[in-house]
Amino acid sequence: MFQLSHEPLIPWPVASDSAGGFVTFEGKVRNHANLRQVLRLEYEAYDDLAISEGEKLVAEAVERYRLESATVVHRVGLLEVGETAVIIQTAAAHRREAFAGCEWILDQLKHRVPIWKKEYYADGDSGWVGADAPGPNPELEAQLTQRQRRLAEIGDDGQVRLKAARVLVVGTGGLAAGCLPYLAAAGVGQLGLIDDDLVDLSNLHRQILFTVEDVGRLKVERAAQFVNRLNPTVEVHRHAERLTEVNADRFVASYDWIVDGSDNLPTKFLLNEACRRHGKPLVTASVHGFEGQLLTVQPDGPCLRCLFPTAPASRCVGTCAENGILGVVPGILGMLQANEVLKGILGYGELLSHRTLLLDLRSGETMSLSRTANPGCPVCGGGTDISDPCEVASMSEAHARLGVFIVVDVREPDEEPTISCDHVRLPFSTLDDLPEGNLVVVCETGTRSLRVAARCLAGGRTNVVSLRGGVASLAEYEPR
C-alpha cells in the first residue's frame, strides 16, 4: 500500500501471525542538512502519478524480498522540524528480509516516485528539487574539495570543470570499487552507473563498496548509495541493466568520459566501438590474478582494436571465479582509472592514450608498452591492410573468401528487420551448435556475430566469419 497524506503521521501497529520480523522506519525533518540550518520542508506531488508509481514500488518490494506486507505513507505540504515526512513499514518471515525490504523501498522512493521537495534554510531555500537531489551547496562543496583546489593544476577553475563533467562507469564491481570513490570525492558532477548484477558474498573481498548486509541486492543501487553518502552533491544516475549493442550508443552519447569496469572482453570491445562512433574517451582496465593492464582510448588515438585487430573469443581468458583474483588488484587498477579520467578533465599529466600500462602486484614491477594506430584496424583504420579471420566488411568480401556460404542470423526472434535473403535464424541467447559448411554470421551491428565467429576460430574452425555492420550491410546483397 502507498499513500500520500496532508495530516501528521503517526506509526501504527503491524500484526501478522505468519511474520517474524517487523520494521518501521520514520523519516523526520531535522534542523540541519549538509552544513546548513534547516527551518522547515515542503513536499509536493502529482497525486495520481505518485500513488501509481508508489504502488508499483511497494509491489516490487514485496516480490523481491518476499515480504508479508509493506506500507508507505508520505507527507505532502509544509512540515516543521521534528515532524515525520515518511513512514515505511515492512513485515516478513525473517528480520533480514524485513530490514532489506524497508531499506530498498527507501532508496527507490527517492528517485522513482514523483515527489518534489523544497528545503527552507536560514540563508534561503533550495527551490523545488527531486527528493534525492541534493541541490546546490557551495559551502559543502568548498570544504570537500579545499585540499585539491590548492594544487596549481586544479584550482577553482579546475573544480568548475569537474563539476560540469559527466562520467559513465560500466560495471560496479572490483574496478569500480577503486574508481568510484575518488571520482565522487573529487567532485565530478554527474556519475552514471550501469550494472544488472546482484551482490554476492564472494564479491566482497575486492568489491569494497558493499558489505555483508548488501548480499542479494542490486550492485548499482548500493554503489549509488555509497556515492551519495560520500559526496551528496554528486548527481548519480542508476541503470540496473546490462550494456548491450542495443543500448550502448544511447549511454555513451550521454556522457563525457567512459570508464570500463567490466570483466569480459565482448563488453570492452562493444564500448570501444561505441566510444569511437561518438568521439568519447574510454578508460579501460583488465585484471588477471596478480596482474593488471590499463590504457586510455582517445577519439583521435589508437583504439582497443588497433591493439587487438581480431577480437579474442569471449571465453579465452578465465574469469575471477575460475582463476581467482587478489582483492587489491582491481582496486589499484580502478584508482588508476580514476586518475586517467581526472587527468583528462583537468589537463594535468600525460594520458595513457599511446601506451598500455602493465602492473604485476607480486613483484611490484610495471611496464609501459607503446601503442600506435593500426591502418588496418577493423574499427578505425579502414581494415585494408589486415585480413581479419573473424570478420568481413561486405558480402562481396565473404564471397571472395568463402565462395558458397550460408547466412546465419543470430538476432533474437523479436529483432527486426527481417532478412530477405535465404538464411538460418539461430538466436544468440540460445545458440549451441552451428550448421556445417561456410557461414556468414550476422546480427544487429556485428558485435554478437563477431563473438560467434571468434569462438569458432578459437575452436579451430576457420570457415565462419562475422559481417561487419550487421544487417544494414545486407541491404545491397544479391544472392548468387
Question: How would you characterize this protein structure?
Answer:
The protein is α/β, with parallel strands linked by helices and 480 residues long. The chain has three domains: 2-130, Aldehyde Oxidoreductase, domain 3 (Alpha-Beta Complex), CATH 3.90.1170.40; 138-370, Rossmann fold (3-Layer(aba) Sandwich); 391-474, 3-Layer(aba) Sandwich (Oxidized Rhodanese, domain 1). It contains 13 helices and 23 strands. Strands 13-12-11-14-15-16-17-18 form an eight-stranded mixed sheet, with helices on both faces. Helix 8 (265-278) links the parallel strand 14 (257-260) and strand 15. Helix 1 (47-65) runs antiparallel to helix 2. The radius of gyration is 26 Å and the shape is globular.
Just name the CATH architecture of the largest domain.
3-Layer(aba) Sandwich
Residues in β-strands, percent: 15-25%
How would you classify the helix and strand content by structural class? alpha/beta
Mean pLDDT: 88
Number of continuous helical runs? 13
Enumerate the strands of the largest sheet in spatial order, edge to edge or round the barrel: 13-12-11-14-15-16-17-18
What percent of the residues sit in helical stretches (DSSP H or I)?
A: 25-40%
The total tally of domains equals 3
Q: Main sheet, how many strands, which sense, barrel?
A: 8 strands, mixed
Radius of gyration: 26 Å
The shape is globular
Mind telling me the CATH class of the largest domain? Answer: Alpha Beta
